[in-house]
Design goal:
189 residues; alpha+beta; 9 helices; 5 strands
Amino acid sequence: MEIRKLEGVIEAILFTMGESVELGKIASAIEHDEDTTRKIIRQMMVRYDEEDRGVRIIELEGCFQMCTKKEMYEYLIKIAKQPRKFVLTDVLLETLSIVAYKQPVTKLEIEKIRGVKSDHAVNKLVEYNLVCEVGRLDAPGRPLLFGTTEEFLRRFSIQSVEELPSLNPEQMENFKTEAEEEIQLKLDV
């Protein structure tokens, strides 16, 4: 099959599926190895960008997805019902960052870090599809474990959680000192 035909097949797969598709499944469908398939898709990604198309292909942890470019949003809302906007409050962002950096994590672990109940925050993040249940901890009560989703990666424009910025040791010491001072204040009261 010639390259243009292969690109057409890949484009049809990604367009039709709507969600991310594993590289292996795409490679199997076009009857090529994963390295060749990845090269074809990445060439498509570059060409879409160079041609300033309204869609783009993104990579999410070894999967690929076709999606609309962010710059097209204002035009889309003119003809479609305006999408529901999710508001990420400070509480939600704090909870989301704990899940992102500590995953898989239980609600109890989140609450220990935050110092307050986190049921509402975790439930909202699940509703927004930024966090999901990823299993159960092998401990008494078998508490749920939470982790981030592909939607989280899409919203924050990263390919994997390894791309999250790391905190430098000095920041970690400052956070630890602040937390210890806060705990001491509560004990003194």
